[in-house]
Write a structure and sequence with these properties.
The chain is an alpha+beta fold and 411 residues long. The protein has 2 domains: 260 residues, no CATH class; 120 residues, Conserved hypothetical protein from pyrococcus furiosus pfu- 392566-001, domain 2. It contains 13 helices and 21 strands. The strands form 5 sheets. Strands 1, 4, 5, 6, 8, 9, 10, 11 and 12 form a 9-stranded mixed beta sheet that branches. Strand 4 and strand 5 form a beta hairpin. It is globular.
Length: 411
């Protein structure tokens, strides 16, 4: 079985993409989604966050929510807003956020390759979140949220995508946040065959975002395979909706930390205590780390530049990550936060919000200090996945986000 294959996408009818595209289901609360979808009857939020069409206070995991998603999907197809292609294609998907542009491919990725870790993971998943996606897929009989994947350097793939994207796009939308999403259908049979062959030659693909979506696709495949005495492996449920970008084009932003207190230490004692593991230097302005191993500290209205002592950087791919170095040499031993997943004293701020947000959280008195990090690099993420290890929590913040609704995979 091929690593990826073309498929007949369900996508916005010509000229309807701007009405349809919406943020991913997991970046908005129900209240935020309700506001975003107001006056937009064909927003994909009616499918991805269908509780917005039910009475306020409805449990988002109630059976009627998933039934509403299926009803809304059928209604948008019946209205001609969404249409399924008659043949199987790949799709070139370009995202532009400001000056940043990345161009990838929408494809159906192999569940079998996911199951044997050729499509590689770097995060644990939560059963309750998997259950939610399984119910959504079962109710709609569709995968409507794509998994964000990365492929290793392959100029021949890049060239085919660039060639396909030279023509007029089949869908072009600017989302509420100003990010542009453009889609081209790859109709050339030779290009489709070449893409399949080039991906088959790759040793692995890497999940960037969407671990729960891919895990739920695996569960759906297993259950439907068990229930299908005529299973052949060619069924749509053997693959999952994915958007795959070249790793070198993907943009990871910093994922910064803010902490409520100094664990009983004075400012002077805290600074003195961290000097064993870090070089500490006062800075005249906000510190945006320029390299791995460098950190910014905002404390009592002042910025400091921290540099980890080189001898404290281990060889293993997880331990040498900046998030690990900070956790293991400052946050746990000095501030006493050993479990950042559960400790209420720590919060996380995506780099898209800027360093000003860190200053704001501290200056307000809500937090005692903030720590800015250098973004995790794609090669570091891939090294962790190759080692079959797991990234620490809140290690990566990918921007720009994919849009829901550009392409769905019907089962």
């Amino acid at each position: 079985m091929s690593l990826i294959r073309p498929f007949p996408a369900l996508r916005p009818a010509p000229g309807r993409a701007n009405e349809v595209v919406a943020p991913p289901y997991d970046v908005l609360s129900t209240a935020e989604a309700r506001v975003r979808a107001q006056g937009k009857p064909f927003s994909f939020l009616h499918i991805s966050k269908p509780e917005i069409d039910l009475p306020e206070g409805t449990d988002p995991y109630a059976p009627e929510v998933y039934a509403k998603a299926a009803e809304n999907l059928k209604a948008m197809i019946a209205a001609g807003v969404l249409k399924q292609d008659e043949a199987a294609y790949y799709y070139v998907y370009r995202i532009q956020m400001g000056e940043h542009i990345q161009t990838g491919i929408v494809a159906a990725a192999s569940v079998a390759d996911y199951d044997v870790n050729r499509i590689r993971k770097h995060e644990f998943t939560r059963p309750d979140k998997e259950d939610d996606r399984v119910r959504q897929i079962d109710a709609t009989n569709a995968q409507t949220g794509p998994v964000l994947l990365a492929y290793p350097e392959q100029p021949a793939v890049d060239a085919i995508l660039a060639k396909t994207a030279q023509g007029a796009p089949d869908a072009d939308a600017v989302a509420d946040d100003g990010v542009r999403h453009t889609l081209w259908v790859m109709r050339d049979a030779g290009d489709i065959a070449a893409i399949t062959r080039l991906f088959d030659a790759m040793h692995a693909l890497y999940i960037a975002d969407g671990h729960h979506r891919s895990a739920s696709a695996s569960r759906i495949c297993a259950s439907r395979k068990a229930a299908n005495p005529r299973h052949t492996g060619a069924e749509a449920y053997n693959h999952f909706l994915s958007v795959i970008f070249p790793a070198h084009e993907m943009k990871i932003l910093d994922y910064n930390r803010v902490i409520t207190d100094l664990n009983g230490l004075s400012v002077e004692a805290f600074l003195d205590k961290i000097k064993g593991a870090f070089e500490v230097e006062a800075a005249a302005s906000a510190v945006k780390p320029s390299r791995p191993g460098e950190f910014g500290l905002y404390l009592s209205g002042k910025w400091y530049r921290l540099a980890i002592q080189p001898g404290l950087i281990p060889a293993d791919p997880v331990g040498r990550l900046d998030v690990s170095l900070l956790q293991n040499n400052l946050i746990a031993p000095v501030l006493g936060i050993s479990d950042p997943r559960r400790d209420k004293r720590i919060d996380f701020v995506g780099g898209i919000r800027g360093l000003g947000e860190l200053e704001k959280r501290v200056n307000s008195g809500e937090m005692a200090l903030a720590l800015s990090l250098h973004p995790t690099r794609m090669q570091d993420l891939m090294a962790v996945a190759d080692a079959n290890e797991v990234m620490p929590p809140k290690s990566t913040w990918f921007e720009p986000k994919l849009a829901d609704g550009m392409a769905s995979h019907l089962l």
